[in-house]
Amino acid sequence: MRVLAAMSGGVDSAVAAARMAEAGHDVTGVHLALSRNPQSYRSGARGCCTIEDSRDARRAADVIGIPFYVWDLAERFHADVVEDFVSEYAAGRTPNPCLRCNEKVKFSAVLERALALGFDAVATGHYARIVDTPDGARELHRAVDPAKDQSYVLGVLTQAQLAHAFFPLGDTVKTEVREEAERRGLSVAAKPDSHDICFIADGNTAGFLGAQLGEAPGDIVDAQGNKLGEHSGTHGFTIGQRKGLKIGTPAADGKPRFVLDISPVDRTVTVGSREELAVSELTASNPRWCGPAPADSVVHATAQLRAHGDEVPVVATVQGNHVQVTFAEPTSAVAPGQAVVLYDGTRVIGSATIDSVQRVSATV
């Protein structure tokens, strides 16, 4: 099988490519140049797509003994991921750029190009598993290593995309991957993982958004509309945020306040207690199913709301292009723009983008 191995320059993608080659596939490595102005070096575990990363990927390909190319997808990445990220924050929503990158770039642009060039599949270093069913379908499942599981950000993949995908690391824990890289003589064996948003290398998301959107001062208010302070832009806040609110007046009960709502139209940020964050249900749209759409309109499942969040029991009601998710127990810090990913055990059912939430405090 002809396989295109996406090689970021990190240890995971290098080992994934090596495993595919060792399994007898005809493997070609490709590094995706996603930055318009790539820096020469990373800063520790921040950022990616630097010149150093592309060189690390090339060296790994040489050790593995596979052809290697660099594909410039900077414009596609900027349009589909960076601009989407900025516009979502400008609208008061909280997007997940890694999820959008998987949907629009790695398993859309790259897979489409790979198939057009005669490749059969794309392999990446994501921690997730694909399980082939007796009827010939492919299911996306959680990785064996729960600490590294990335099925949440892959929940946007369709059955057609899974049919041409390989995740060779899904049955391995991270320590074993590094040990294997060392045995294979890959120089990236001890390279730090990238933990932050790749196009914000200094980790200062608020500063990045401020430079893109400018200042738009407004008020910070409580749930009753009382002004508590001021801010320089709603894009500097996310639902559930506690730190950095800069409210001079303490709460009457002395407890911390959290961001409850963000309204870019009137430039208002509403804050309240932890209890006021509790959500009983949400409405999401544009579902993407990792296999056939659920046969029943009502699905008992578990849901994950953040990349490293816990699963919670839910009942999901599917109505065309919308999904209503009701929580068995109230949950907190649910933000419009995030993805809700539904699971049946370890299997990913699909995902949808959160549009609105119903807070417990609004119903009592």
What is the secondary structure topology, with strand pairs?
Elements: E1 2-6, H1 11-22, E2 26-33, H2 51-64, E3 68-72, H3 74-90, H4 97-116, E4 121-123, E5 128-132, E6 138-142, H5 159-162, E7 165-166, H6 174-183, H7 205-213, E8 218-222, E9 227-231, E10 258-263, E11 268-272, E12 279-289, E13 298-304, E14 312-319, E15 322-331, E16 339-344, E17 347-359
Parallel strand pairs: 1-2, 1-4, 2-3, 4-7, 8-11
Antiparallel strand pairs: 5-6, 8-9, 10-11, 12-15, 12-17, 13-14, 13-16, 14-15, 16-17
Protein architecture, described:
The protein is an alpha/beta fold and 364 residues long. It has helices at 11-22, 51-64, 74-90, 97-116, 159-162, 174-183, 205-213, and strands spanning 2-6, 26-33, 68-72, 121-123, 128-132, 138-142, 165-166, 218-222, 227-231, 258-263, 268-272, 279-289, 298-304, 312-319, 322-331, 339-344, 347-359. Helix 1 packs parallel to helix 2 and helix 1 packs across helix 6. The longest helix is centred in the N-terminal third of the chain and has 20 residues, at 97-116. It is globular and about 65 Å long. Mean pLDDT is 90; it is low at 40-46. It is found in: Cytoplasm. Residues 280-354 form the tRNA-specific 2-thiouridylase MnmA-like C-terminal domain. It catalyses: S-sulfanyl-L-cysteinyl-[protein] + uridine(34) in tRNA + AH2 + ATP = 2-thiouridine(34) in tRNA + L-cysteinyl-[protein] + A + AMP + diphosphate + H(+).
